[in-house]
Amino acid sequence: MGLSLRNQQQLLSKIATGNGHGEDSPYFDGWKAYENDPYHPIDNLQGVIQMGLAENQLSFGLVEKWILNNPKASICTAEGVNQFRDIALFQDYHGLPEFRNAVAKFMGRVRGNRVTFDPDRIVMSGGATGAHETIAFCLADPGDAFLVPVPYYPGFDRDLRWRTGTQLIPVACESSNDFKVTIEALNAAYEKAQEDNIRVKGLLITNPSNPLGTVLDRETLTSIVSFINEKSIHLVCDEIYAATVFSQPDFISIAEVIEDDIECNRDLIHIVYSLSKDMGFPGFRVGIVYSYNDAVVNCARKMSSFGLVSSQTQHLIASMLSDDEFVNEFISESAKSLEKRHNYFTSELEKVGISCLKSNAGLFLWMDLHKLLKEQTTEAEMTLWRVIINEVKLNVSPGSSFHCPEPGWFRVCIANMDDKTMKAALTRIRIFVNKELVVPTKKRCWQNNLSLRLSSTRLDDFMMSPHSPMQSPLVRAT
Amino acid sequence: MRLLSRKATCNSHGQDSSYFLGWQEYEKNPFDEITNPKGIIQMGLAENQLSFDLLESWLTKNPDAAGFKSEGESIFRQLALFQDYHGFPAFKNAFVEFMSEIRGNKVSFDPSHLVLTAGATSANETLMFCLAEPGEAFLLPTPYYPGFDRDLKWRTGVEIVPIQCTSSNAFQITEAALLDAYQEAQNRNLRVKGVLVTNPSNPLGTTMTRNELNLLVSFIEAKGIHLISDEIYSGTVFSSPDFVSVMEILKARNYENTDVWNRVHLVNSLSKDLGLPGFRVGAIYSNDDMVVSAATKMSSFGLVSSQTQYLLSAMLSDKKFTKKYIFENQKRLRQRHRMLVSGLEKAGIKCLNSNAGLFCWVDMRHLLKSNTFEAEMELWKNIVYDVKLNISPGSSCHCTEPGWFRVCFANMSEETLELAMQRLKAFVTEYSSTVLGQNMSSSHQSIKNSRRRSITKWVFRLSFDDGRDREPDQR
C-alpha cells in the first residue's frame, strides 16, 4: 500500500497494532483448524469436532416452542407490530423497565429465590465481554491490577486489559486441592503485587468456574469476602454459568453471602451476568452489570451507551423471562439435560481411564491428560494438543491457554453438540487413548513446527467466503 | 485509596451539560397530546419518526424475517448462537448496498471493510481507540454534536480541539480555521491524529460542499493525519445540493489505494435514516485493513444482536422497499422541514439554510439580552420552562457565537409541531415587548434604536397576523 509497516503502526494506536486482543494465543488456533475442516454428521464425518466452544445447545427445543406460541414477543410479527415503533425508538440506557424486571426476576429464580435482585441495579452491556470491560473502566485506572485465580477464561486477558490498561495478576491454585481458592494464595498474590508496586483494585472470580465447572463453597466465599473487605478492594463475581449447575453441591451466589454478612462493605461487590450460557443466546448480546455500589451503577449505565442491548432483543427477553411457567420449566429441563450429558460423557471417559475434575456445573469438562504427556511441561502439553487437533480431530482447549500452572489439563466442551456428534467424539477419544497406551506420543518433529496460525488477512478472506457455514460460526472467545 | 477509577469519578461523560439538563426537565413534564397537553414538547431529540408506517407495512408482509424463520423454517437456534464479530454476511452485504444507494450509487463499498458496532456511539469511540493514544487530539469543526465529548474523549483519553466556524460564511470550514485549530493543538502540546467531521452536519443540517471536502482531503494529506466522516445523516438529505460523501471526492481525485485513501474512515448507522435508534446498528467503514482488523476485534465489546442483524438483512435486501423508503422518507422530511421553517418565520425567527438532518439551526441572536452565552442560557431557560419546548442551546454544541439553537422537527406529529410553533410565536411576541423592551435604558442607544425598530417591525407584523389590536412598542 505504499506505506511501510512501521509508519503504518505509528499512524494507528498502540492498542490497535499490539496484540492485546489476545488472538495470537493458541486458544484460537484450534478454532481456526476447526473452521478449515468442520465436522458434519452427514457431509464431513472426518472433520474436526468442535469441543472448544462453551455453548449451551441442549435446550433450544423448549425455547423454539415458546417462540412459536408467543408471536407477540417479536415486535416484528403481525401480532406484535403495533409495538414496533415505540421499541424501535427506545434507546434509553436505563433499558426497558420490563426487560430489567424480567432479568432481575430470572436471576433470583436461578438462585432458587434465595435472594432477590433490584431491577434498578440492572445495567446493560455488550454481552459479558462488554460488562467486564465496563467494570474495569469503572473500578481501575491504567496500571492498576485485578487478582484472578488460575485457571481462568482466556477472554479475560482481552476484556479486562486490552483497552483499559489494567493488569491481571494470577492467584495460584493447585490440582492437589481441586484448584480451590485459598486465603494463603490470595494473600501471596496480593503481597507480591505490593512488592512490585502494583496497586490491586479488586479480585475477579468466576462462579461457577470456567474452565473447572465447579462451584465455590460457602466457606471459601465467606473468606473471600473477608479478604476483600480487609484489603478494601473490589470483588467482581462473574456468575455467567449460574443456571448450568445441574447437581449438588448447590450454587451459592455472592448475593446470598453478603445478604447475611453485615460487616461487608457492599460498595465493593459487583456481579457480571449474561444470557449467553444459561439460556444459550450468545448471539443476542445480553450482558448485565449488577453492582451494589450506586456510583458504579451510575457510571456503568452511562458507559452502557457503548454497548446497549438491541431494544428488539430486550423486548423478546422481557416477554420470555416474564413467563414464569416457561422459566421454571426451562431451568429445570436445562439442568437435567446438562446432567445427563455430563454423566454420560464422564462415565465413558472413565471406561478408557480418563478422569476429569469432579464438577457439577458449566458446559464443559476439565479433563486430566497429564498421564499422556511425555514430560510434565507446557511444551509437552502443546505437543499433545496438536495431536488431538490434527489426528484425533477434536478442537479442545489446552490448559495453558487458561493460565493453568500444571500441564496436562484440557477443557472439553460437551453441551454444544447433538448426541450423535457426542458419540463420534467419544469414539475418537477411545481409539486415541487405546492407541496411546500401545504407542505413546513421541516427539513428532513436523508437528512441532506446525503453525496453526493464519494471517488475519487470510482468515478474513475465509470468513467472507460465500461458503462460510452459518452452522459453525467462528467465535472469538467463550 | 480512591475506590473507583478516575473515569468513574470525573464528569467527562458530559452529562452535566445543558444538552442533557433539558432532557431531564422534559422527563419530569413530558408533553402528551391527550394526557399532558401543557407539558414540555421534546424538540431536542434528533429522531426520525416520520416513516414508521413504511417499516411496519414491510414487516407485516414479511413475517419470516420477523419470526426467526427462513423459508418458513425456524432458524432461531442458528441466530441465537451467531456471535461472529465479522457479522452476518447477508446483513453486511445489504448494508453496504444501502449505503451505496443513498449516495446515488456514485460510490460502492466492500462489505469486508465494514465493521458492525453497537450504534454510531460505539463506532466513534472504537475509531478513537484505534487511531489515537490517550492525550492525542482530533480536530472537530464547531458547532458539533454534544455526544462527541463523551464518545470520543471519555474512556479513550483523546482530546478534542475545535475548528472554529462562524455564521459569517454559514459555518463552513475554511482553510484558515483548520490551520488555526492545528496550531492551537500544537500550542497545547497535543499531537493531532486527525479530523472528524459530521456530514451532513449535526447540528447545522447542511451537507458539506465539494470545496470543503476537497479542503479537508488536502489538509489531511499535507499533515499525514486521519479523516473520519460521520455520515450518520446521509439518508436524511431531502433537497439539493446532493449529498457528496468524502469517498466520492477521493475517487474523483484518483486517490484509490494511496496513503490518504487508507486514512479516511466513515461512520454510519441506521438510527437516523431508518429511525431505528433502539436497535443499536452502527458501522465503521475503513479502507485500511489494519483498522478493519483492530476495530472488528474491538466490536466484541458491542456487537449488533443477531436477531436484529437478521431482520435488517431481510429488509435492506428488499431493493424495491429501500428505493421506495428512501424516496418517501426524504419527501416527508422535506415537508416537515418546510413546516418548521415557515412556523419559525411567522415568529420572526430565521434559521440557517439547510437541506438535511432532522433539525434546523435556528438563529435567535436577536432575542438575546446581550451577545453573551449567559444571555443564551437565560433565553434557553425561558424557552424550556415558560414556552415549554426542549430545544438545544448552541453552547452545548460548542458554538462560538451565542444565540443559535438546534430545533428538531422529525420526532413528533404535525399537530404537535404546529402547537410548538404557536407557543413560540406567542412567546416571541411577549418576550420582545416586555423583556427586550426593557433594555431601552442602556448606553448603546443607536443599537437599541435599531433593535427597537426591528422589534417594532415584528410586533406590527405579528399583530397584523394575529388580527389582534396590539399597542406598538415605544418609538
UniProtKB/TrEMBL annotation, chain A:
S-adenosyl-L-methionine found in the keyword field: yes
Span of domain Aminotransferase class I/classII large: 49-429
Pfam families: Aminotran_1_2
Enzyme class: lyase
Record's catalysed reaction(s): S-adenosyl-L-methionine = 1-aminocyclopropane-1-carboxylate + S-methyl-5'-thioadenosine + H(+)
Domain of life: Eukaryota
Protein name: 1-aminocyclopropane-1-carboxylate synthase
Keywords, sorted A to Z: Ethylene biosynthesis, Fruit ripening, Lyase, Pyridoxal phosphate, S-adenosyl-L-methionine
A GO MF label: transaminase activity
Family statement drawn from the similarity comment of this UniProt entry: Belongs to the class-I pyridoxal-phosphate-dependent aminotransferase family.
Organism: Rhamnella rubrinervis
Gene3D superfamilies: Aspartate Aminotransferase, domain 1, Type I PLP-dependent aspartate aminotransferase-like (Major domain)
UniProt GO BP: ethylene biosynthetic process; fruit ripening
SUPFAM superfamilies to which the protein is assigned, alphabetical: PLP-dependent transferases
Pathways involved: Alkene biosynthesis; ethylene biosynthesis via S-adenosyl-L-methionine; ethylene from S-adenosyl-L-methionine: step 1/2
InterPro entries given in the database record: Aminotransferase_I/II_large, Ethylene_sulfur-biosynth, NHTrfase_class1_PyrdxlP-BS, PyrdxlP-dep_Trfase, PyrdxlP-dep_Trfase_major, PyrdxlP-dep_Trfase_small
Subunit structure: Homodimer.
Cofactor: pyridoxal 5'-phosphate
EC nos: 4.4.1.14
Lineage of source species: Eukaryota, Viridiplantae, Streptophyta, Embryophyta, Tracheophyta
UniProtKB/TrEMBL annotation, chain B:
Pfam families per record: Aminotran_1_2
Keywords on record: Ethylene biosynthesis, Fruit ripening, Lyase, Pyridoxal phosphate, S-adenosyl-L-methionine
Catalytic activity: S-adenosyl-L-methionine = 1-aminocyclopropane-1-carboxylate + S-methyl-5'-thioadenosine + H(+)
Top EC class for this record: lyase
Signal peptide: none
Cited InterPro entries: Aminotransferase_I/II_large, Ethylene_sulfur-biosynth, NHTrfase_class1_PyrdxlP-BS, PyrdxlP-dep_Trfase, PyrdxlP-dep_Trfase_major, PyrdxlP-dep_Trfase_small
GO biological process: one example: ethylene biosynthetic process
Gene Ontology molecular-function annotations: 1-aminocyclopropane-1-carboxylate synthase activity; pyridoxal phosphate binding; transaminase activity
Cofactor(s) required, per the database record: pyridoxal 5'-phosphate
Stretches assigned to the Aminotransferase class I/classII large domain: 41-424
Annotated EC: 4.4.1.14
Pathway: Alkene biosynthesis; ethylene biosynthesis via S-adenosyl-L-methionine; ethylene from S-adenosyl-L-methionine: step 1/2
SUPFAM superfamilies: PLP-dependent transferases
Family annotation (Gene3D superfamilies): Aspartate Aminotransferase, domain 1 (3.90.1150.10), Type I PLP-dependent aspartate aminotransferase-like (Major domain) (3.40.640.10)
UniProt superkingdom: Eukaryota
Presence of the UniProt keyword Magnesium in the record: no
This protein's record includes keyword Isomerase: no
Coiled coil: none
Record's subunit section: Homodimer.
PANTHER family listed in its UniProt record: 1-AMINOCYCLOPROPANE-1-CARBOXYLATE SYNTHASE 9, BIFUNCTIONAL ASPARTATE AMINOTRANSFERASE AND GLUTAMATE/ASPARTATE-PREPHENATE AMINOTRANSFERASE-RELATED
Family indicated by similarity: Belongs to the class-I pyridoxal-phosphate-dependent aminotransferase family.
Record-given protein name: 1-aminocyclopropane-1-carboxylate synthase
Species of provenance: Rhamnella rubrinervis
Upper taxonomic lineage: Eukaryota, Viridiplantae, Streptophyta, Embryophyta, Tracheophyta
